[in-house]
């Protein structure tokens, strides 16, 4: 190393390098968003390790038929968390990026009353986070004294091993003796989706080892699960186990998720949560309660219209999971919306709607009349052909019929790749797909932003200023 070289100081990175990098990345993202036709948002509010409130906003859009996501801000939010203040903050967030409200398709949030009111005040379309809804539905289904007692017992068992290294050591020895996996117990978290099912599954897996360790100490013998407790836990595990996979799958942000919600709800009603002959009374009660809760919450007209249209423009589903009596109305709504989109985007007008023009004769050139031909006898018997060009709406309806009658698509097919390959075939409907397939089904993107900020605002960096936190999280998410 050259002895004349001076290493950059911490102040250089904090005051010059990082702000410059932030400005460059922000400008690059702003240039990309300037050409976006439609976009969706997610938002959430959390407190940092220093108990300072922050509001995150993420944006989602389709570019070159690829799903794109970006973190717009993780801004300090010291005001009272009322609906009015949150609504104003969301307006300021999109205004700072020069995003137009008319291009916003929907915003995905949790079910907090303040964020719900904020979206209503802004008159935006809100998508209920499927992960939060399913989490609340499970809690609603567990509202039974038997389940409450069994879950409480699981929590006490986990707590007993969490605070005793001797019991953890004894558990590890028994696991080896019995040939059980060397797994630690899992604690339920009220804010972590699926944590209850993971806790119950682990307790059932280690039930034999746990019973031996707990029964060896007279102070913990009362925590040994009875056969009634195990029966309740097995019923809970049977119901919750299939639901965990759907929560994880619908939490992605790099692929289409919204179009899955309608088929998933149908699958819950017809298969996964349908009562079977071998189910116990408790199992049937839990299934019925969860299904009724989800059906009720997703029966709102605005939410139903959004989910049905997203499923309709997904080539894997189309009209499969839409009630038969609503298909014609959905087709009509799709045609009207495509007409509106084409009207707003005249530059993207399909070729079949363009009227060909006849070239004008050049200056100085006289229009030469064609030489008249002598009529033949057959010309008197020719019928004049009447050809009418298809209207704009008629062309869209024909395209829609062709889309619904096209060959079926495998369930593993990426709908965005399919639309990229078939955009030339269905140019008008592709605008509808661009609009509805970009909305995320859960608010996981905002949750991930806070997970990222938790790795930045650590105990050793608790004095970071809000502006520095915003810049660091923005760069960590968007670079």
Quick tags:
479 residues, alpha/beta, 5-stranded mixed β-sheet, 18 helices, 5 strands, 8% strand, globular
Structure, explained:
The chain is α/β, with parallel strands linked by helices and 479 residues long. The protein has helices at residues 10-33, 83-96, 113-122, 130-141, 145-162, 165-178, 195-205, 207-215, 227-249, 258-272, 281-297, 301-312, 324-344, 392-405, 415-422, 427-436, 444-456, 466-478; strands at 39-47, 53-63, 66-76, 104-109, 126-128. Helix 6 crosses helix 8, helix 9 packs parallel to helix 11 and helix 13 (324-344) packs across helix 16. The longest helix has 24 residues, at 10-33. The chain is globular and about 85 Å long. The two termini are 29 Å apart. The relative contact order is 0.13.
Short description:
The protein is 54% helix and 8% strand.
Topology (elements, then pairings):
Elements: H1 10-33, E1 39-47, E2 53-63, E3 66-76, H2 83-96, E4 104-109, H3 113-122, E5 126-128, H4 130-141, H5 145-162, H6 165-178, H7 195-205, H8 207-215, H9 227-249, H10 258-272, H11 281-297, H12 301-312, H13 324-344, H14 392-405, H15 415-422, H16 427-436, H17 444-456, H18 466-478
Parallel strand pairs: 1-4, 4-5
Antiparallel strand pairs: 1-2, 2-3
């Amino acid at each position: 190393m050259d002895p004349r070289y001076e290493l950059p100081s911490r102040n250089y990175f904090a005051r010059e390098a990082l702000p410059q990098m932030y400005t460059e990345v922000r400008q690059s993202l702003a240039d990309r968003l300037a050409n976006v036709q439609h976009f969706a948002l997610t938002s959430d509010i959390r407190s940092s390790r220093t108990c300072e409130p922050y509001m995150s906003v993420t944006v989602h859009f389709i570019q070159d038929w690829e799903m794109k996501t970006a973190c717009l801000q993780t801004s300090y939010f010291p005001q009272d968390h009322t609906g009015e203040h949150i609504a104003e903050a969301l307006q300021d967030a999109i205004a700072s990026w020069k995003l137009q409200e008319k291009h916003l398709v929907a915003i995905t949030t949790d079910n907090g009353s303040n964020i719900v009111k904020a979206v209503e005040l802004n008159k935006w379309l809100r998508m209920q986070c499927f992960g939060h809804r399913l989490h609340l539905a499970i809690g609603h289904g567990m509202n039974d004294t038997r389940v409450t007692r069994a879950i409480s017992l699981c929590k006490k068992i986990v707590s007993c091993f969490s605070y005793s290294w001797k019991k953890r050591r004894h558990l590890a020895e028994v696991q080896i003796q019995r040939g059980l996996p060397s797994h630690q117990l899992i604690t339920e978290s009220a804010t972590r989706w699926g944590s209850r099912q993971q806790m119950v599954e682990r307790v059932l897996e280690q039930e034999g080892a746990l019973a031996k360790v707990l029964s060896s100490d007279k102070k913990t013998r009362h925590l040994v699960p009875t056969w009634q407790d195990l029966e309740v836990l097995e019923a809970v595990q049977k119901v919750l186990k299939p639901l965990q996979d759907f929560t994880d799958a619908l939490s992605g942000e790099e692929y289409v998720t919204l179009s899955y919600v309608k088929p998933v709800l149908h699958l819950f009603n017809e298969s996964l949560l349908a009562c079977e002959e071998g189910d116990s009374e408790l199992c049937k009660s839990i299934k019925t309660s969860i299904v009724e809760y989800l059906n009720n919450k997703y029966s709102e007209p605005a939410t139903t219209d959004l989910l049905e249209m997203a499923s309709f423009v997904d080539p894997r589903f189309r009209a499969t999971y839409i009630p038969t009596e609503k298909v014609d109305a959905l087709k009509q709504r799709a045609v009207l919306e495509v007409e509106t989109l084409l009207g707003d985007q005249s530059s993207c007008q399909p070729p079949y709607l363009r009227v060909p023009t006849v070239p004008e004769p050049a200056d100085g050139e006289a229009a030469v009349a064609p030489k008249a031909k002598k009529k033949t006898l057959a010309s008197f018997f020719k019928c004049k052909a009447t050809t009418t060009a298809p209207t704009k709406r008629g062309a869209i309806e024909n395209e829609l019929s062709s889309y619904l009658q096209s060959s079926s698509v495998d369930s593993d097919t990426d709908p965005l790749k399919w639309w990229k390959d078939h955009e030339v075939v269905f140019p008008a409907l592709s605008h509808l797909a661009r609009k509805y397939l970009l909305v995320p089904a859960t608010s996981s993107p905002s949750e991930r932003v806070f997970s990222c900020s938790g790795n930045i605002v650590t105990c050793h960096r608790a004095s970071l200023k809000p502006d520095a936190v915003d810049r660091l999280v923005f760069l960590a998410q968007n670079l």
